[in-house]
Structures are given as structure tokens and as C-alpha cells.
């Protein structure tokens, strides 16, 4: 296991904010997987997919920022 993965797991256990961000990130990832399994998307689903991707990236950025602060 990489040190980054270990640090991520430690933060998830010790920091409620990091854990919340991780859970939200996973929820969006799960929904994106559901959408990708569909044969075609309605225009609403396409908009949802774009929104979810943006939100997922924002959550990842916040988690990475917290990891950098913790590692330094």
C-alpha cells in the first residue's frame, strides 16, 4: 500500500470532514457508473452527468488539498 493511500485511510478514520468528502465522492462515482451503464441518456441525464463529474472533481481537489496539508 502506498503512503498516499495509507494517509488517505488515516484521514478518513480521524477526520470527519475528509470522511464526508470521501463519501460524497464515492456517491457521485456510483451514480456516474449507473449512468454509464445505460444505453443512452436523456438530456437531463447528460446534464446530471456533467454536473456530477464537476462535483466529483471539486471533492477530489478538496481531499487532495487536505492530504497535502497533512503530509507537510
Give the percentage of residues in beta strands.
Answer: under 5%
Mean pLDDT: 94
How many helical elements?
A: 3
C-alpha-based Rg, rounded: 15 Å
> Which H/E pattern describes the elements?
HHH
Terminal Cα span: 20 Å
- Largest sheet descriptor: none
**Residues in helix, %:** over 70%
Strands, count? 0
Q: How many separate domains make up the residues?
A: 1
* pLDDT < 50 runs, ≥5 residues: none
Shape descriptor reads: elongated
> Which structural class do you get from the secondary structure elements?
mainly alpha
Concise overview:
The chain is mostly helical and 72 residues long.
Can you tag this structure with a few keywords?
single chain, 72 residues, mainly alpha, 86% helix, elongated
Structural write-up:
With 72 residues, this protein is mainly α. It contains 3 helices and no strands. The protein has one domain (3-71). The longest helix is centred in the C-terminal third of the chain and has 29 residues, at 43-71. The mean pLDDT is 94.
Set down the secondary structure blueprint:
Blueprint: H1 3-14, H2 16-36, H3 43-71
Helix pairs in contact: 1-2, 2-3
Amino acid at each position: 500500500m502506498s503512503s498516499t493511500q495509507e494517509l488517505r485511510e488515516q484521514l478518513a478514520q480521524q477526520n470527519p470532514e475528509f470522511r464526508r468528502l470521501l463519501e460524497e465522492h464515492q456517491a457521485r462515482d456510483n451514480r456516474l457508473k449507473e449512468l454509464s451503464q445505460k444505453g443512452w441518456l436523456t438530456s437531463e441525464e447528460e446534464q446530471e452527468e456533467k454536473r456530477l463529474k464537476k462535483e466529483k472533481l471539486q471533492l477530489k481537489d478538496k481531499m487532495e488539498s487536505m492530504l497535502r496539508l497533512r503530509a507537510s
